[in-house]
Amino acid sequence: SWSSDNQKFCMREVLDTFKLCLSPDKEVYLEHYVAGWRGLVKFLNSLGSVFTFISKDAVSKIQILSNFLSGESSSQYVTVQSMVSYELENQLVDVNKTGIHPESGCRTLLRLHRALRWLELFLERLRTSDKHSKTSVMCSEAYNESLAQHHPWLVRKAAGLAFVVLPGRTAFFEVMNVGPPEQVVAVLGEALPLILEVYQITEDLYAKHHLLDLP
Ligand code: 1PW
Fold first, then answer.
1. Which of these ranges, 27-31, 94-98, 200-204, has the smallest mean pLDDT?
2. Residue 7 — pLDDT band, cuts 50, 70, 90?
3. What is the residue with the minimal CA distance to atom 9 of ligand 1?
4. Residues sharing a CB contact under 8 Å with residue 30, sequence separation 6 or more, in sequence order
5. What's the pLDDT score for residue 61?
6. Helix, strand or coil for residue 21?
7. Ligand 1 centre distance from Cα of residue 5 (Å)
8. Which atom in ligand 1 lies closest to the alpha carbon of residue 112?
9. How far apart are CA 193 and CA 198, in angstroms?
10. Cα four-point dihedral sign 6, 134, 128, 193
11. Looking at the predicted structure, is the pLDDT value of residue 5 above 50?
């Protein structure tokens, strides 16, 4: 997301997009979820070219979901809840792990959902960190606690190498472009509970339908 006046990335706008995800009755709007991820990808890309390897997969997942959002069944893809019902009712999900529906909305969103947990853990560490904390350590701890469990060795290795060259905390805060460190902390403190809620609602929905291990 880019602010209109200076054309710079602004993390506040991305976090605001995730806030828009929740409907009044606590469903998750797919359009805003995807828009939030678009913003995160811009952020990753502005951290440097080593992160393109990480963002590339997210970009392809975003593209798959965008195609559903603008496709002929778009009315079924308004919320994550309606997507899950629609794909399950129409046998569009590879629930038997036979590899017949490799690009279902359900399995595609699951990958972003797992990555959102990583992001949430990382940003929570960042929020409570002090000026001596290392972003690389916070990022890899968050990764090992979450997404790493779903990745093969080679991806874990590559991710670990990318974390090492993450900008330090001060530079990282500057790239986020939300103001002085106190402001970053405040913005994170406001946005993280909402991201966590989006995560938890999705997690509960997927658990209820036994979709958490989709291949
Ligand atoms: C500093 C902020 C960090 C937040 C951004 C998180 C981005 C997450 C993307 C990680 C991608 C690593 C490389 C790709 C691995 C894929 O194999 C994997 N995808 C994900 C998103 O984990 C699994 O997808 P697949 O292969 O089953 O289609």
1. 94-98
2. low
3. 54
4. 65, 68, 69, 77, 78, 79, 80, 83, 105, 109
5. 97
6. coil
7. 32
8. 21
9. 9
10. positive
11. no
Closest residue CA from atom 24 of ligand 1:
111
**Gap from CA of 193 to ligand 1 centroid (Å):** 22
- DSSP summary character for residue 201: H
Q: pLDDT tens digits for 102-125?
A: 799 999 999 999 999 999 999 999
Give the pLDDT confidence of 112-168 residue by residue, as tens digits.
999 999 999 999 999 999 999 999 999 999 999 999 999 999 999 999 998 998 999
Q: How much is the pLDDT for 101?
A: 76
Give the residues surrounding ligand 1 with Cβ less than 6 Å away. 40, 44, 54, 57-58, 111, 114-115, 118-119, 147, 155, 159
CB 113 within 8 A of CB 202: yes
ipTM: 0.91
- Compute the distance between CA of residue 104 and CA of residue 90 in angstroms, rounded to an integer: 11
The Cα 6–Cα 115 span in angstroms is: 29
State which amino acid sits at residue 210: H
Two tokens, residue 92: 């569009």
The topology under which CATH files domain 11-208 is Glycolipid transfer protein, GLTP (1.10.3520)
Probe target for ligand 1 pocket from 155, 163, 195, 212, with the most ligand atoms within 8 Å of CB: 155
Ligand 1 center to 55 CA (angstroms): 7
Centre of ligand 1 from the C-alpha of residue 28, in Å: 21
